[in-house]
Amino acid sequence: MGRRTPLYDQHVALGARTVDFGGWDMPVNYGSQIEEHHSVRRDAGMFDVSHMCVVDLHGASTRAFLSRLVANDVGKLRVAGKALYSCMLDDTGGVIDDLIVYFLREDWFRVVVNAGTRDGDLAWMRARSAEWNLAVTITERTDLAMIAVQGPQARTKAAALLESAARESALAMEPFFGREFPATDGASWFVARTGYTGEDGFEIVLPNAAAVPAWRALIAAGVAPCGLGARDTLRLEAGMNLYGNDMDTTRHPLESGLAWTVAFEPATRDFVGRKALEAIRAQGGAASKLVGLVLEDRGVLRGHQAVIVPGTDLRGEVTSGTYSPTLERSIAFARVPRQTTDKVLVDIRGKHLPARVVKLPFVRNGRILIDL
Which residue ranges does the chain devote to CATH 2.40.30.110? Predict the structure, then answer.
């Protein structure tokens, strides 16, 4: 038996199929994964993401600590509530984890990290704090649950659970911001306009005791419970990496479609992994790149399938693949040689099937962004 979130019994009562995910017993779907996917694209769906790890960092040295810890520049965070997506790297430039950083006060930042890497992430953070002799208190918030409500109607339906005086302010919040709001249950909820589906919505961090009533109230408001299966197809359509598939400690951001998350300016900021990434840039850049693929024949794209560049000896590999309910065809991310152009072959059970290289994302905010 793995770890269980405060909502586990709700998933069982709804008939969810559960699996081990990063050491947690999590719902894959509640019946039809495709219907759950469409609920998010067309209306509103929600995910129990309480397995994610919320870490609060306190102390006068917190900004200096994060400036060295992550590859993106927390110096950009000057307005309370502003969030930043980044990678935390090792000395070789490998990705220890991808995470979101929220600036709440000058002595208080919140970081949300992945479930499967939480123990290693916390150990890494604490070791770096000691190594750099920076006074930062690092607190794993095991007292908090997290529900992601996503879709074109998600914010409106979720805001109904906040105090009436707070609803307008929550709905007016800009993307990639998070703030605390009073909820109708009397508790204070941290509501962020972020997500992992390519749709608008809220990620709500709330006390464990508030999770079940909130989940039930969202169902009553017409929000569909969704499992990790739909979360995966949605994030892949939206061009969002999955840690462990599309990047890990053996891969750096420059070859993982995440160069935009690395801030080389200001040049004086010495973040972990910087020297390794600068050496790669000095050698002409990454030898490979992460691209989107659309299969042009019948078949299913899956991780680890070989990608062949026709007429050459160049090879790549599918990192994540799925059937796209929105596009009604098979799509994937693949890491391929940087010389790769727009046509490749994918080895599917010994058959070399044609696929087209496309610019990510495939879908965003309900719109198909590639030519079919």
Answer: 253-368
- Asked if residues 198 and 235 have their Cβ atoms less than 8 Å apart, the reply is yes
pLDDT at 180: 98
CATH code assigned to 54-140: 3.30.70.1400
The bridge status of strand 45-48 relative to strand 224-225 is parallel
Residue 79: CA count within 13 A, CB half-sphere = 9
Q: Is the dihedral of CA 45, 28, 291, 118 positive or negative?
A: positive
Domain with CATH 3.30.70.1400 in the chain: 54-140
What is the C-alpha separation between 32 and 223, in angstroms, rounded?
A: 15
Q: What is the 3-state secondary structure (H, E, C) of 311-361?
A: CCCCEEEEEEEEEECCCCEEEEEEEEECCCCCEEEEEECCEEEEEEEECCC
CB 31 within 8 A of CB 225: no
Q: Count the alpha carbons within 13 Å of 188 in the hemisphere toward its beta carbon.
A: 3
Distance of CA 268 to CAs 73, 142, 185, 276, 317, Å? 11, 36, 47, 15, 36
Q: Give every CB contact of residue 119 below 8 A, 6+ residues apart in sequence.
A: none
Nearest Cα neighbor of 236 from 301, 333, 307, 144 is 333
Report the distance separating Cα 248 and Cα 254, nearest Å. Answer: 12
- To the question of domain 253-368 being in CATH 1.10.10.570, the answer is no
Residues of the chain predicted below pLDDT 50? none
Please state, in angstroms and rounded to a whole number, the distance separating the CA atoms of residues 92 and 112.
23
Per-residue pLDDT tens digits for 185-208: 999 999 999 999 999 999 999 999
Give, as one character, the DSSP assignment of residue 193.
Answer: S
Q: Is the peptide bond before 207 cis (omega within 30 degrees of 0)?
A: no
Give the torsion through C-alpha atoms of 47, 229, 42, 98, to 10 deg.
Answer: 60
Domain range 8-49+144-235, CATH class? alpha beta
Instruction: Determine the pLDDT at residue 2.
Output: 86
